[in-house]
Amino acid sequence: MMATRGPLQLTLALFKPDITRVPHVVQAIRNRIIQEDFFVVRHKEVRLSRQDTEQFYEEHRGKFFYNRLVTFIGPSQALILAHEDAIKHWRALMGPTKVYKTKYEAPDTIRGMYGLTDTRNSTHGSDAEETAAREMKFFFPEFCQEDWYRVEEDRFRKGQVRLDEVKFMHNLF
């Protein structure tokens, strides 16, 4: 992996249940993440309860699609990704939320290739730094963003990491 020049930004990425059930799709998305020079700072498999899902999507309560979001539960994968302008870059790689349009307008994006519906759209990504901080804390309560920036960010940026392919996470060397 090439060292990057600018400071790294963190974002949360989720692989939703519609793709975690399909191992070759998960692997294809992992490959895209690495090809796009993202660092995988944290990664874990999760299975959210209905209550956890409602808490995670609280900001959407009352919207017409809320019930579809919170009933769509199952095995998922949560990742903290780092990249220059990570939020914007991950969202561009995912593609637009509306899968029916994405299949035509951005077919090479993750959602364009693997999304099924607007709810079962394969992935989630934070939309702002504040959201990313909250979402990372939700899935990785032990992770301290401030400590990571103070202790590890510079070494990640300089490429002093190695990908553990089994855990799908970069580790410092």
TrEMBL record:
Pfam annotation, one family: NDK
Active site residues per record: H124 (pros-phosphohistidine intermediate)
Catalysed transformations (reactions): a 2'-deoxyribonucleoside 5'-diphosphate + ATP = a 2'-deoxyribonucleoside 5'-triphosphate + ADP
SMART domains membership: NDK (SM00562)
Keywords: ATP-binding, Kinase, Magnesium, Metal-binding, Nucleotide-binding, Transferase
InterPro entries assigned to the protein according to its UniProt record, in alphabetical order: NDK-like_dom, NDK-like_dom_sf, NDPk6, Nucleoside_diP_kinase, Nucleoside_diP_kinase_AS
Listed cofactors: Mg(2+)
Residues annotated as binding ATP: K16, F65, R91, T97, R111, N121
Top class in the EC scheme: transferase
Gene Ontology biological process terms from the UniProt entry: CTP biosynthetic process; GTP biosynthetic process; UTP biosynthetic process
Single GO molecular function: ATP binding
Listed EC numbers: 2.7.4.6
Occurrences of domain Nucleoside diphosphate kinase-like (ranges): 8-145
Family stated for the protein in its record: Belongs to the NDK family.
Protein name, UniProt field: Nucleoside diphosphate kinase
Gene: nme6-L
